[in-house]
Write a structure and sequence with these properties.
By secondary structure, this protein is mostly helical. It has three helices and no strands. α1 packs antiparallel against α2.
Length: 124
């Protein structure tokens, strides 16, 4: 029974390592499309799901965490086509928000910084 359990754990670890490699490759691909090509092929939500899965697997299997993992740095290098813009008021990011509670928390944080917030919604 112990031998069978060890074999299952090895299989699970091998599957986790393979999935971590797949996710890392997919995320790099999507980062490149987003930051260099300005042409994403998946939504932010779908991207966040991939990243969350990778983070979860790296937490479960820290032996497979690489210093080159997409979880160890922010996004990618931005294309030179983006122009720098200076804003009169601070631009705060909603980050990864997918619920009413996230929106409410964001609004509360914003109102501590800005007297009368202005929200802009960009739907694709």
């Amino acid at each position: 029974m112990l031998v069978r359990l060890n074999v299952l754990l090895i299989m699970e670890k091998n599957q986790a390592k393979k999935r971590i490699e797949e996710l890392s490759s997919q995320i790099e691909h999507h980062n490149n499309l987003y930051y260099q090509g300005s042409n994403p092929e998946i939504s932010d939500f779908e991207f966040d799901k991939l990243l969350d899965e990778l983070i979860s697997l790296e937490n479960q299997f820290p032996e497979f965490l690489s210093p080159f993992s997409p979880t160890q740095r922010v996004g990618g290098s931005v294309t030179k086509d983006f122009k720098t813009v200076v804003h009169d008021a601070p631009f705060l990011s909603l980050s990864n928000s997918y619920s009413l509670e996230d929106l409410t928390d964001f609004d509360e944080r914003t109102r501590k910084t800005v007297t009368i917030p202005l929200y802009v919604l960009n739907s694709v």
